[in-house]
Amino acid sequence: MAEIIDGKKISQQIKDELKDKVEALKANGKTGALAVIQVGEDPASSVYVRNKKNACAYIGIESLAYELPEETSEEALLKLIGELNEKEQVKGILVQLPLPNHICEDKIIQAISLKKDVDGFHPQSVGAMTIGEPGFLSCTPAGVIQLLKRSNVEISGKHCVVIGRSNIVGKPMALLMLRENATVTVTHSRTQNLKEICRQADILIVAMGKPRFIGAEYVKEGAVVIDVGIHRDENNKLCGDVKYEEVQQVASAITPVPGGVGPMTIAMLMSNCVQSIEEE
Ligand code: NAD
């Protein structure tokens, strides 16, 4: 039976460490705020935004909420970002995705000052991560690395298979595992023999966005399985991309959904905000 990698507990540890750091920074006169922008009222986005504001309050940094109507123009959003880029107290700018269709996400992401790109989505932040230069790391993949490290999972030299190649999870995930000296295979929707490839993984990271897709037949005995997926099933229950009950029987360690990768994403966002305050 697999050991459960407890993302709730590990993210709490990280937030407590950050809370102490924020207090020390305040004592040295260093403070800052995270600006959180939401366009429209997508209910899932509203939950994420609320959780981010709560996390800021917990670690002791200010959050500034910008709740804009669905019909906000791209121009108006770019203008707001321009103003926030200039505001000294604002140390991080987060635009909750997805944006309405009439707004180009890439344009918005690229408008955020590199120094305030706490989501790590700016192409230059991604480039810096690729070549190991300092910069903000994409939060979900950085959270997975912390989960593995803080659970004493050896990464160096291990074969890591990542399922998914999106810009926000799969690709940065593969790059960060490479940085940790894993041997990395990236798989995607056109991959042939997915099962055979997954069965070679010492660490299997699943970010495919397909509810309960990965069963025990994809997992080598004793592998570590990280489930990034998050969905509501037909009973409105949260589930991941992995068939948790059966994979738990063959893996040596596994993240649950909820309570695995999800809470780590916010903890790493807070870590990026604190880094930004430190670096001012
Ligand atoms: P996405 O839809 O952008 O990408 C999915 C990827 O999976 C694609 O690259 C695709 O090629 C691959 N894929 C799809 N079907 C496949 C198949 N049959 N075989 C192999 N590969 C396949 O999704 P995303 O934004 O990367 O997110 C992935 C999942 O992670 C989603 O469920 C999302 O909700 C979740 N997510 C969770 C967090 C978190 O904080 N826990 C953060 C971001 C995303």
Q: What does this protein look like?
A:
- The protein is an alpha/beta fold.
- 41% of the residues lie in helices and 16% in strands.
- The protein contains ten helices and eleven strands.
- The chain has a six-stranded parallel β-sheet.
- Helix 2 packs across helix 10, helix 6 packs across helix 7 and helix 6 packs across helix 10.
- 42% of the residues are buried.
- The chain binds nicotinamide-adenine-dinucleotide (NAD).
- The site of nicotinamide-adenine-dinucleotide has 24 residues, from helix 10.
Protein topology:
Blueprint: E1 3-4, H1 7-27, E2 33-39, H2 43-59, E3 62-68, H3 74-86, E4 90-95, H4 105-111, H5 123-130, H6 139-150, E5 159-163, H7 170-179, E6 183-187, H8 194-198, E7 203-206, E8 224-227, E9 231-232, E10 238-239, H9 244-247, E11 253-254, H10 261-278
Parallel strand pairs: 1-11, 2-3, 2-4, 5-6, 5-7, 7-8, 8-11
Antiparallel strand pairs: 9-10
This protein binds nicotinamide-adenine-dinucleotide.
The site of nicotinamide-adenine-dinucleotide has 24 residues, from helix 10.
Tags for this model:
10 helices, alpha/beta, globular, binds nicotinamide-adenine-dinucleotide, 11 strands, 6-stranded parallel sheet
